[in-house]
Amino acid sequence: GRYDRAITVFSPDGHLFQVEYAQEAVKKGSTAVGVKGKTCVVLGVEKKATAKLQENRTVSKISLIDDHVALAFAGLTADARVLISRGQVGCKSYKLSVEDPVTVEYAARHIAHIKQRY
Q1: In the chain, which residue ranges form alpha helices assigned H by DSSP?
Q2: Cystine design at 91: which of 10, 21, 71, 102 (Cβ 3.0–4.6 Å)?
Q3: Contact at 8 Å (CB) between 95 and 110?
Q4: Is the distance from CB of 81 to CB of 71 less than 8 angstroms?
Q5: What DSSP state is assigned to residue 75?
Q6: Most distant CA pair in the chain, distance
Q7: pTM of the shown model
Q8: Strand, helix or coil at 111?
Q9: Which residues contact 49 (CB under 8 A, 6 or more apart)?
């Protein structure tokens, strides 16, 4: 039916299909963990086996979205590339309008807003 088009639309039996689809995508992905210290953050990701024809250095689950802001993802790489690209554009836009480096809070809110919209 039409119950899988938005995150806020429930099916007649009470399911949020978009949430269930996202959970399945994460299961197919790898684990990503972030640990916050007093002056730093450490990101770690599970490295799964790559296909024979796939080069190891092309598979990265941690990406920079600005000079001092990184993003780790657990889901599908294709989905994350869209978020990374839009996050980088958001950070550049912030720098151009505010003339300061993007704050981590702004970057997180920007990406969360993109995710919530879709």
Answers
A1: 17-28, 77-98, 104-117
A2: 102
A3: no
A4: no
A5: S
A6: 50
A7: 0.70
A8: helix
A9: none
